[in-house]
From TrEMBL, chain A:
MF terms (GO), sorted A to Z: clathrin binding
Protein's UniProt name: AP complex subunit beta
Family per record: Belongs to the adaptor complexes large subunit family.
Keywords tagged on the record: Acetylation, Membrane, Protein transport, Transport
Lineage per the UniProt record: Eukaryota, Metazoa, Chordata, Craniata, Vertebrata
Domain Beta-adaptin appendage C-terminal subdomain: 855-965
Membrane-topology descriptor: Peripheral membrane protein
Subcellular location: Endomembrane system
TrEMBL record, chain B:
Family: Belongs to the adaptor complexes medium subunit family.
Chain intervals for the UniProt region annotation (Disordered): 392-412
Protein name: AP-3 complex subunit mu-1 isoform X1
GO biological process, one term: vesicle-mediated transport
GO terms under cellular component: clathrin adaptor complex; cytoplasmic vesicle membrane; Golgi apparatus
Principal location class: membrane
Domain of life assignment: Eukaryota
Organism name: Xyrichtys novacula
């Protein structure tokens, strides 16, 4: 340090006398000693110079605490500059020299009585900064006087001092009654005093979350709003942040506060602007949407937000993080401002990435052409991270704006042609997602993708490519070669790629069993024997087990239809978003994490919620408990902060190893490779081994839920436990099944009578039929076929009538159905046309299946997804039905429905009425959301259904009725 | 006139093209934090120079060790370009909020939830104050005035609450150094610290001190507009907007009450004012009514958004191409006037960020000089005044590294220019009236248009 100072001095060309750098020139040897002498000099000027030297050393982090007594001796002076310098020193070192610090107390106490308000304020301010317990007790009396000082400058300084003292000794502050004095200052005549009192109270309140320190009522609010206009910019921030905690009584009060806060949007200080935006965003929740003022306010919010983006890049960054929240909550505010988010060449990278994110959020059919042109431009920039994100963004556009998908795909293909390695890899990852969103539309590009196989060196891109090859194996002639080429270095691949490769090869095998038996055997043995990754092994065993027991079932499981990926993939979960909107402008809003993530548990953070709207229909539509008026129940539990949903949604098959249970113990049955793969001799081994592996849940949770009964049958106990671990794949009991009815009367079918019904057992749809021979001759050679139907129902195997059916004999047949058959919309929706053949003729009949057969086991929506989806589905899609004469209570109803895979996600009770929020997923991935209202003692239920495909609502309602009444 | 709020444009040369960029994702450091229960705003401030030395530290509370900055240095290392260091960082026990101004980092340490914009605004205000006091904000100047800077910091913040950030209030408490005063103080033992309460501090007009007296009363306003624009390859405007600022220099005796009115105030899409401006009058009459601070200040910022038609003063015809084979490329740029409202375009400069593989440029300029910086791969063509009769042209060949493939990234052009006596938005001040005082002041308005972030894609 000293060398640096000397050098600095030498380097200076002109007289260093004029500047403070001269204070660095003392030599190291005896430096402290010299300073000591100077500090004790009789000459005032010399003293001051010496203190300056000490301060200069302090500013560069040098330890000059040894001079404490000498510096304190200089304190009693009438020279204000010297006094200030000594105070500066004291604040820095008092903590390390508490006994010495006591020496200063007398001077402080004296200075608090000084006729000059500047000195009184300075003394009280400095005293509060000396964090030494012994001093605090001496501070109380001077502080009390200063809080009531005639000069507002002293009062405002004293207000802050209360907060300082509270930080050192909270009990003392309470005992001395300082908090009450502080509260009185909110009514002070001077706006600066008010602002500082608010700031101090807010700070104290933060450490006492349950205290009622800032008792906000219309009177105090009015005082704050008055002070808001007159205090400094910083004071305005304190007041606005405090206002944001207030909940107006009604929409009129809300509007009047908004009106008085709006002028702050024109402040030059961006922090004031953002705090004002927070207040307005929160309070406008209470305004009826049809109010003129509501529209006016929306319009007023856009220009200041745009202006924030022309500020310094650091301010832009914080503004952009907040705008990201605002556009999720109220996209209409900035929907016309796309251009301001266009990325400029010399924006810092952190600004570029944020702008890109918002561009995607604002992308719509109206502006998509512009956005795509920009994204394409960005994809040729220099910065690799930015380019990657731009390529991803193109994919997100395709998924978000359906009309643009084709253009996006062709843009991505253009980019792949550039052969820039990381661009190609990103493009392939997003194209996989596009396939997931629009199946059977863009597969023609697969050939181009395959050309780039060799250049892929990132796990995510490799995994995506492998997924594509496996998924579309039937269209890729050399799929087996491609996959085999990956297999060579199997053990060097990342887990993600290994898992994907395993699945892809199994898919390939199921599609082209003849040529690929060897390949599948190879991958299964690599995964199960040569790997020590429990997830990989477990998945390998599952596939092996499936393939060996029942290839048909395997097909259903592995090739089951995947749910479409959702449109907006990385939305913040609505409750968190609401909370973050209340925290606009804070660190929480920058990190998009709830404030509770910032503080340790002891602190106790109150979760802020947006106020409900008055008089609008929103509270009725919304299943969100907090936004409904008049609900008095405990605040909902906070949903733990979650990471990027994107990854999870897109990579159902790529689930990273989350649960890492102990690997299964090696057993003697491990030499599997020698066994015939399809021979099915594995039961005993699997029954014991897999059941013990806790990691199974993670690996398996990703697999489709449709689990054929035939799979369940031979392996009992062990696997049931296993499925429970998987969580979503529970084994429902008591699913509703209607009684059998006659589908084909004997007179129409030359003596064959068929009656039947449908049931869903263990995740498989069963068509249960009784065939009766009412003719005179024996019937043989039964076969069954379905016409195309709405949900792609098709027999999963042949009709098993093994023995000939003698006259007057009946036989019970259970036909498992799959949902991967050809699809055609039927009228009515659940109509099924069936052809049955026997040795006599072919007969046709049609029947209707209850739609509840199609409710899948993993139809339980995450609570937050439910909320988002419910809000997202337009109200036009909502239909309401009455169920009459139902005498179950809500719990019984819920249980009953659960048996048929209608899952209750939340329940709340309002004025004796139970509201159940339920979700159901159909085999083709359509979600049906329901709100079931049950009033105690009233046999009439109300069901409101929301679904993106409203045509199923009627059927679902009929099922509801049937399920509940049986 | 110095512009306090002039945005920190990275000058073309400074933003070198090194893009091993940082991850904003600060998950780098585990999320769970052990925040101190103590609540205060800004805990400490570190000033850090370009090469990463801490040369000043100020703690408003207990002393925090310098090691806290190590997290920052780690990120700074990754970011390569100092401009790319994210402004908000999380460490296990603190948050670090920083700004980058004048090749210095102002790094503040935060321990509790605090509005980051508040901190960033404050840090910029510190930099502004240093600039205002000492003429520039640089390491040398701060070191030369370290005690004054320290006193200023103490005056600006108390326990994390901003105390006095208005320049004129500060100047009454701590006098800015002048050579004369330094000499006088040295001789007489006088002090730089005011010993009376600043008069503006608690009045309803904290920005103005009482008892101002001038022999020459004058009020000058500079309307300065910057065009931010992106033009595409063909010269079509992708987006363009105007950031305007009215800088004032007012030296008037007493308590003048001014009213500034515009010919066409409705041009402005968004405005933000100095606290002295009466917002209600603007809302109702679209005039600026205010009691001005004494001296230089920013009266108003405004914004003309891209939804309006923004005039683009020059056109650029350019072609930069690289050949698939052979280690070379060609460059040909011509610039001409477009919508200049009859004014002359001056200080015209084109900055071209070349791909990394370019090693030399052999160009000929019909006007002005060009330089090629091998380290940053930036070509700067300094043209000067634009002559509409003889359009400047720069052309020639570029050499790329032998064996390097054709560059993937397109070069980007940035244009700098100035047009005197023109506000390109068309904004015009119609009159300035003074009330409350009897003398007749000198009045003046100047207009200036500059290029802000003016980018041409290739």
């Amino acid at each position: 340090m000293q060398e640096w100072a000397n050098q600095l001095c030498e380097n200076r060309q002109f007289g260093s006398k004029m500047t403070d750098s001269k204070y660095f020139t003392t030599t190291k040897k005896g430096e402290i000693f010299e300073l000591k002498a100077e500090l004790n000099s009789d000459k005032k000027e010399k003293k001051k110079e010496a203190v300056k030297k000490v301060i200069a050393s302090m500013t560069v982090g040098k330890d000059v605490s040894a001079l404490f007594p000498d510096v304190v001796n200089c304190m009693q002076t009438d020279n204000l500059e010297l006094k200030k310098l000594v105070y500066l020193y004291l604040m820095n070192y008092a903590k390390s020299q508490p006994d010495m610090a006591i020496m200063a107390v007398n001077t402080f106490v004296k200075d608090c009585e000084d006729p000059n308000p500047l000195i009184r304020a300075l003394a009280v301010r400095t005293m509060g900064c000396i964090r030494v317990d012994k001093i605090t007790e001496y501070l109380c009396e001077p502080l009390r006087k200063c809080l009531k000082d005639e000069d507002p400058y002293v009062r405002k300084t004293a207000a802050v001092c209360v907060a300082k003292l509270h930080d050192i000794n909270a009990q003392l502050v309470e005992d001395q009654g300082f908090l009450d004095t502080l509260k009185d200052l909110i009514s002070d005549s001077n706006p600066m005093v008010v602002a500082n009192a608010v700031a101090a109270l807010s700070e104290i309140a933060e450490s006492h979350p349950n205290s009622n320190l800032l008792d906000l009522n219309p009177q105090t609010i009015n005082k704050l709003l008055t002070a808001l206009n007159e205090c400094t910019e910083w004071g305005q921030i304190f007041i606005l942040d405090c206002l944001a905690n207030y909940t107006p009584r009604d929409d009129r009060e809300s509007q009047s506060i908004c009106e008085r806060v709006t002028p702050r949007l024109s402040h030059a200080n961006s922090a004031v602007v953002l705090s004002a935006v927070k207040v307005l965003m929160k309070f406008m929740e209470m305004l009826p949407k049809d109010l003129d003022y509501y529209g006016t306010l929306l319009k007023k919010l856009a220009p200041p937000l745009v202006t924030l983006l022309s500020a310094e890049p650091e301010l832009q960054y914080v503004a952009l993080r907040n705008i990201n929240l605002i556009v999720q909550r109220r996209p209409e505010i900035l929907k016309h401002e796309m251009k301001v988010f266009f990325v400029k060449y010399n924006d810092p990278i952190y600004v570029k990435l944020e702008k890109l994110d918002i561009m995607i959020r604002l992308a719509s059919q109206a502006n998509i052409a512009q956005v795509l042109a920009e994204l394409k431009e960005y994809a040729t920039e220099v910065d690799v991270d930015f380019v990657r994100k731009a390529v991803r963004a193109i994919g997100r556009c395709a998924i978000k704006v359906e009309q643009s998908a084709e253009r996006c795909v062709s843009t991505l293909l253009d980019l792949i042609q550039t052969k820039v390695n990381y661009v190609v890899q990103e493009a392939i990852v997003v194209i996989k997602d596009i396939f997931r969103k629009y199946p059977n539309k863009y597969e023609s590009v697969i050939a181009t993708l395959c050309e780039n196989l060799d250049s892929l060196d990132e796990p995510e891109a490799r995994a995506a490519m492998i997924w594509i090859v496996g998924e579309y194996a039937e269209r890729i002639d050399n799929a087996d070669e491609l996959l085999e080429s990956f297999l060579e270095g199997f053990h060097d691949e990342s887990t993600q790629v290994q898992l994907q490769l395993l699945t892809a090869i199994v898919k390939l095998f199921l599609k082209k069993p003849t040529e690929t038996q060897e390949l599948v055997q190879q991958v299964l043995s690599l995964a199960t024997q040569d790997s020590d990754n429990p997830d990989l092994r477990d998945r390998g065993y599952i596939y092996w087990r499936l393939l060996s027991t029942d290839p048909v079932a395997a097909k259903e499981v592995v090739l089951a239809e995947k749910p479409l990926i959702s449109e907006e993939t990385d939305l913040i979960e609505p409750t968190l978003l609401e909370e973050l909107i209340c925290h606009i402008g804070t660190l929480a809003s920058v990190y998009h994490k709830p404030p509770s993530a910032f503080v340790e548990g002891s602190r106790g953070v109150q979760h802020k919620r947006l106020p409900g709207s008055a008089g609008s229909g929103e509270s009725v539509d919304s299943p969100d408990p907090a936004s409904a008026a008049g609900v008095t129940e405990a605040p909902p539990a906070v949903i733990p902060s979650q990471g990027d949903l994107l990854g999870d949604l897109l990579n159902l098959d790529l689930t990273p190893p989350t649960a890492t249970g102990p690997p299964p113990a090696p057993s003697s049955g491990m030499q599997l490779g020698a066994m015939d793969l399809l021979g099915g001799g594995l039961d005993s081994l699997l029954g014991g081994d897999i059941g013990g592996s806790a990691a199974m849940g993670a690996g398996f949770g990703a697999a489709p839920a449709a689990m054929p009964a035939s799979f369940n049958a031979p392996v009992s106990g062990g696997l049931d436990d296993l499925f429970d671990l998987g969580g979503s794949v529970g084994m429902p009991m008591g699913a509703y099944s209607p009684p059998k009815t006659v589908w084909l009367p004997a007179m129409k079918a030359k003596g064959l009578e068929i009656s039947g019904t449908f049931a869903r057992r263990a995740g498989v749809i069963q068509m249960e039929m009784t065939l009766t021979n009412k003719a005179m001759s024996v019937m043989t050679d039964f076969a069954i076929q379905f016409n195309r139907n709405s949900f792609g129902l098709a027999p999963a195997g042949p009709l098993q009538v093994l023995t000939p059916l003698s006259p007057n004999q009946s036989i019970e047949v259970s036909l498992p159905l799959s949902t991967v058959g050809p699809v055609m919309k039927m009228e009515p929706l659940t109509n099924l046309q069936v052809a049955v053949k026997n040795n006599i003729d072919v007969f046709y009949f049609s029947c209707q299946y209850p739609i509840s057969m199609l409710f899948v086991e993993d139809g339980k929506m995450e609570r937050q997804v439910f909320l988002a989806t419910w809000k997202d589905i337009p109200n036009d899609n909502e239909s309401q039905f009455q169920i009459k004469d139902c005498h179950l209570n809500s719990d019984a109803a819920s249980n009953k429905l659960q048996g048929s895979n209608v899952f209750t996600i939340a329940k709340r009770t309002v004025e004796g009425q139970d509201m159940l929020y339920q979700s159901t997923k159909l085999t083709n991935g359509i979600w049906v959301l329901a709100e079931l209202r049950v009033q105690a003692g009233n046999p009439n239920y109300t069901v409101s259904l929301k679904c993106r495909a409203p045509e199923v609502s009627q059927c679902v309602f009929q099922s509801y009725e049937a399920m509940l009444k049986n | 006139m110095t512009c306090l709020y002039l945005r920190a444009h990275s000058s073309a040369g400074a933003s070198s093209v090194s893009r091993q960029s940082c991850h904003i994702d600060t998950e780098l450091y585990s999320w769970h934090s052990h925040l101190d229960l103590a609540a205060e705003m800004i805990h400490s401030l570190f000033l850090i120079n370009h090469s990463g030395d801490i040369f000043l530290e100020k703690h408003w509370k207990s002393v925090i060790g310098r090691s806290v900055c190590d997290y920052f240095f780690e990120v700074k290392e990754k970011a390569v370009d100092p401009e790319n260091v994210p402004p908000v960082l999380q460490t296990p026990h603190h948050y670090l909020i920083s700004i980058y101004r004048g090749k210095l980092f102002f790094l503040s340490v935060i321990q509790t939830e605090v509005p980051p914009l508040f901190v960033i605004e404050f840090l910029h205000r510190v930099a502004d104050t240093i600039q205002d006091y000492f003429g520039e904000c640089s390491e040398n100047v701060i070191k030369d005035n370290v005690v004054t800077v320290y006193e200023l910091l103490e005056e600006m913040l108390d326990n994390g609450f901003p105390l006095a950030t208005e320049s004129n209030v500060l100047k009454e408490m701590i006098r800015p150094p002048t050579i004369l005063r330094t000499v006088v103080n040295t001789l007489t033992g006088g002090s730089n610290v005011g010993d009376t309460l600043p008069t503006g501090q608690l009045s309803n007009i904290p920005w103005r001190r009482a008892g101002v007296k001038y022999t020459n009363n004058e009020a000058y306003f500079d309307v300065i507009e910057e065009i931010d624009a992106i033009l595409d390859k063909s010269g079509t405007t992708v987006c363009a907007e105007i950031q305007g600022v009215i800088e004032a220099c007012v030296r008037l005796t007493g308590m003048p009450d001014l009213t500034l009115s515009f010919m066409n105030p409705r041009l402005l899409d968004d405005v933000s004012f100095h606290p002295c401006v009466r917002f209600k009058r603007w809302e109702s009459e679209r005039v600026l009514s205010f009691i001005p601070p004494d001296g230089n200040f920013t009266l108003m910022n405004y914004h003309v958004s891209s939804q309006n038609l923004v005039a683009i003063p020059v056109w650029v015809k350019q072609s930069i191409s690289f050949f698939e084979s052979g280690p070379s490329g060609r460059l040909d740029i011509t610039i001409g006037p477009k919508q200049t409202m009859g004014k002359t375009v001056e200080n015209l400069k084109v900055t071209i960020h070349m791909p990394k593989t370019v090693v030399s440029a052999n160009l000929t300029a019909t006007q002005g000089n060009y330089t090629f910086d091998l380290a940053t791969k930036v070509v700067v063509w300094d043209i000067g005044k634009l002559n509409p009769q003889k359009l400047p042209n720069l052309r020639g060949s570029l050499s790329t590294q032998t064996g390097a493939p054709k560059p993937d990234d397109n070069p980007s052009l940035n244009i700098d220019l100035k047009i005197q006596q023109l506000a390109i938005s068309g904004l015009k001040v119609s009159r300035l009236d003074m009330y409350g005082e009897k003398y007749k002041p000198f009045k003046g308005v100047k207009y200036l248009t500059k290029a802000g972030k003016f980018q041409v894609r290739t």
